[in-house]
TrEMBL record:
It comes from the Bacteria. The lineage of its organism: Bacteria, Pseudomonadati, Thermodesulfobacteriota, Desulfobulbia, Desulfobulbales. The keyword Flavoprotein does not apply. Residues 10-149 form the NADH-ubiquinone oxidoreductase 51kDa subunit FMN-binding domain. InterPro entries: Ion_transpt_RnfC/RsxC, Nuo51_FMN-bd, Nuo51_FMN-bd_sf, RnfC_N. Residues 376-435 form the RnfC Barrel sandwich hybrid domain. Transmembrane segments: none annotated. GO terms for cellular component: membrane. Gene3D superfamilies: NADH-ubiquinone oxidoreductase 51kDa subunit. Keywords: 4Fe-4S, Electron transport, Iron, Iron-sulfur, Metal-binding, Repeat, Transport. One of its GO terms (molecular function) is 4 iron, 4 sulfur cluster binding. This is Na+-translocating ferredoxin:NAD+ oxidoreductase RNF, RnfC subunit. The keyword Plastid does not apply.
Amino acid sequence: MSMNPIVAEVKEHGIVGAGGAGFPTHVKLAANASTVIVNAAECEPLIHKDKEILTHHTTDFLNGLRRTMDAVSAEEGLIGIKGKHEQLIQLLRDAAGQGIRVVPVGDFYPAGDEITLIYETTGKVVEAGKLPLSQGVIVSNVETLLNIGRRRPVTTTFVTLGGAVEQRVTLEVPIGLPLTTLIEYARPTIPDYTVLLGGPMMGRLAASIETEVTTKTSSAIIILPNDHTLVRRMRTMGKPETVRKIGKSACDQCIFCTALCPRYLLGHPIQPHKAMRALMFTPIDDSITEPHTLACCECNLCSMVSCPEGLYPGSVSVLSKRATAAAGIRLDTASSATNGPHPLISYRRTPTGKLKRLLDLNQFGDRGPLSTSSFMPATLSIPLRQHIGKAAQPIVQKGDRVAAGSKIATVGSDLGSEIHAPLAGRVEQLSESAINLTLGE
């Protein structure tokens, strides 16, 4: 059976979910759905790229939303965006047209969690272990829809620069651009710092800024003092043995981690306090395999906010989730069927303002206007795996000259994403992980 022309174009252009995971978008668009929901909640503090795209690239974004609706035969499109952005909401309502509605949501974390956003915009609850499609819905983020609307290969990404820097802006930059270039542009205001890639809640600390480059899923570069609370906690979260020792010795089963869990509040079986309890009764070197942790959305709210003792129930739940999946244990969707959202769900949300205060982020300006600055580095290093699935295979040779936007690597019929040259140049080096281009030759 031939592929839908819109879906085929999305595949050829190498479009993936730009919100973080990098799932190939053409796979998602191969199904039919009654509703397309735009995840414009942007619930992580200090990130502003979605708002800037919606403000400055409204036409291409809406074109991408309409093409997505056409591809999946959707009857309506819903733009889920925080109600505090009143001017932007009015702009979108004026431009949206028939079949597209703007739905304001609350200013809480994680409003941008896919399952939470579906509930906030439609009132529907996707049951644990099931996909949004079970409710006739697909969810896509703002930058992904922009890329669909532009109808050209993905060669750039939007990144917000924030934290302890002079230049708090959002930029559209080539894929494969060295992080050092952007950090130099941002002008850190402190001599010693740690680089956070992504948001304060679900991002990661850069292992080495000398080797990191921008990808299709880049979202933010946040400069933090080395002794900042986020840096210290994320470093601990990256040490499973330490996380387990702390949890075994100090958890008093107060259940705040479960009471405030966004998925638990929607009726899902996840209960982080039970993962902590299992940890206490498990030998230190053994993994815990709690099936309910398969419903964890990994938002880190329980580790960063909920626990009054500063423990890491989120990390323990994720460790259990990985071990449970590796053991071949699956969530029993029949016994995990939700009875609906918790009656106190509206009162247990975590306001973004509270989150910023608890994470000591108010010391940084929370803004990121779109800048038109451009970058022309000497070289780009384009990763061959910027997506879920198989790494792309180069279709160019060392010494080849490539045009901007030309395909340089492919996954063929496998799950993954096509890769294109961000700028014109010459192939300088090929490796198993990247294609290096020398520009302007």
